[in-house]
Design brief:
mainly alpha
């Protein structure tokens, strides 16, 4: 995603966040929501989100003029994606590996997902792959 003309990752991270006006000029409608959801997915991909990341993403949502409730929903979609992506190892043999599942539950808890939401992602995963 980073081209040489943008600088190094360290240089990019040090830049101040885009203003609401800048965000408004570079994005339109549904693209804003997609940007925020993808950004959450990237932030969650290392299995941990620190307070600074969460604050920056909250500011991004506000700067993109996305309602607070919708921001939370988009974050939830990104969280569910991370759990869903991890379930392949749980059902690799076609049966649930309980140790692997507990690892996914622990991941979900680190990402701020409650147990019921993790279970719902698991249920949808099993339905999708005929593992019910």
């Amino acid at each position: 995603f980073i081209t040489p003309d943008m600088g190094t990752l360290d240089e990019i991270v040090q830049k101040p966040p885009l203003s609401a006006a800048e965000l408004g000029e570079c994005t339109v409608g549904p693209v804003r929501e997609t940007m925020l959801m993808l950004t959450w997915a990237l932030a969650l991909s290392d299995g941990d989100v620190d307070a600074g990341e969460a604050e920056r993403l909250s500011s991004l949502g506000a700067g993109l003029a996305i309602q607070t409730e919708r921001c939370a929903q988009l974050k939830g979609y990104a969280q569910a994606y991370q759990i869903d992506s991890s379930l392949g190892a749980v059902y690799a043999s076609g049966q649930r590996d309980e140790t692997a599942y507990q690892g996914v539950v622990a991941l979900g808890q680190r990402l701020g997902i409650n147990t019921e939401a993790i279970e719902r992602v698991d249920i949808r995963y099993r339905k999708r792959f005929g593992l019910v």
